[in-house]
Specification:
By secondary structure, the protein is α+β, with helices and mostly antiparallel strands. The protein folds into three domains: 68 residues, Structural Genomics Hypothetical 15.5 Kd Protein In mrcA-pckA Intergenic Region, Chain A (Roll); 82 residues, Pseudouridine synthase (2-Layer Sandwich), CATH 3.30.2350.10; 140 residues, 2-Layer Sandwich (Pseudouridine synthase), CATH 3.30.2350. It has six helices and 14 strands. A hairpin with a 3-residue loop joins strand 11 and strand 12. Helix 1 crosses helix 2.
């Protein structure tokens, strides 16, 4: 068996009884295509209650322990693509991008085209090699439909230093979102555990056990008739953290079809990574970079009756 990059262990429950194993795994492995899931099952990377399985149609029996071994990425060439790339700042060590909505950050699990990495390979000569051919230069990520600031490493020295900053939480990450409803408290701190939603494993949720600590600080910048413009500074970087915390407060983000309900015709969650403050990984200079608000966010703000000029702080 080739080298294993990651091992995922998950427990099913009675509600999963009768589901096909490939359908179930497609729900819990982020960014995975159905064909990729089927491939790793075919090749013996999945075990149910200690027994290796190789049939995609295998039906779950209820409460079972599933172990998925994700193999190292195949050696392949990720193709450079001439996709639009909004560069905010660039020097010999780093490049800072204002990522457009509807763009996946890096190739994953059988989906190798149209990503930020494909665009970076076309526009940027050198990228760090620490994360291999699939994620060159990538230190952190944003959800596909979240826009805004991403810092990319152009060499391994910068990559290592930036990775340490993210692990040690020494960067300041500020987001802007449009949330539904009017908040009772105009600022606050949310500290919870976030883990997989037991009812829908494609979602994350605030949980009591088996989660990771997540901290978000919010401040209301403006209010419309039934929407709020919210600044959120996060101290941790959990999957879907701000989206989950806004839902937890009963103020889901406008346009979020996973954690919200009616989206008023808005096509993606109105969440934008607005500002990143950090120490330059090589020069040690303090860096503050901001990402211009995208056009669809501006239109949504008009719809919501909130003033984006209040974002300046």
């Amino acid at each position: 068996m080739e080298n294993i990059k990651e091992t995922i262990t998950v427990y099913t429950n009675e509600n999963d009884k009768g589901k096909r194993i490939d359908s179930f795994l497609n729900e819990i492995i982020d960014d995975a295509t159905r064909s990729y899931i089927q491939k790793i099952i075919d090749n013996g990377y999945v075990e149910i209650t200690g027994k290796k399985i190789t049939k995609n149609g295998n039906k779950l029996k209820g409460i079972e322990r599933i172990v998925v071994n994700i193999p190292e990425d195949e050696t392949l060439d990720v193709i450079p693509e001439n996709l639009p790339l909004n560069i905010i700042y660039e020097d010999k060590d780093i490049v800072v991008i204002n990522k457009a909505p509807d763009m996946v950050v890096h190739p994953a699990h059988g989906n190798y085209n149209g990503t930020l990495v494909n665009a970076l390979l076309y526009h940027i000569k050198d990228l760090s090699t620490i994360n291999g051919v699939i994620r060159p230069g990538i230190v952190h990520r944003l959800d596909k439909d979240t826009s805004g600031v991403i810092v990319v490493a152009k060499n391994d020295e910068a990559h290592s230093a930036l990775s340490d900053m993210f692990k040690e939480k020494t960067l300041e990450k500020v987001y802007i979102c449009i949330a539904k409803g009017i908040f009772k408290d105009k600022y606050g701190r949310i500290e919870t555990l976030i883990g997989r939603d037991i009812r829908d494993r494609k979602k994350m949720a605030v949980v009591d056990i088996n989660g990771k600590n997540a901290v978000s600080n919010y401040e209301i910048l403006d209010e419309g008739k039934n929407f709020s413009l919210v600044k959120v500074r996060i101290e941790t970087g959990r999957t879907h953290q701000i989206r989950v915390h806004m839902k937890y407060l009963n103020h889901p983000i406008l346009g979020d079809n996973v954690y919200g309900s009616s989206n008023e015709g808005i096509k993606r969650q109105m969440l934008h990574a607005y500002r990143l403050k950090f120490t330059h990984p090589v020069t040690k200079k303090e860096m503050v970079v901001t990402a211009e608000i995208p056009e669809d966010f501006k239109k949504a703000a008009k719809f919501a009756g909130v003033d984006i000029d209040k974002i300046k702080f």
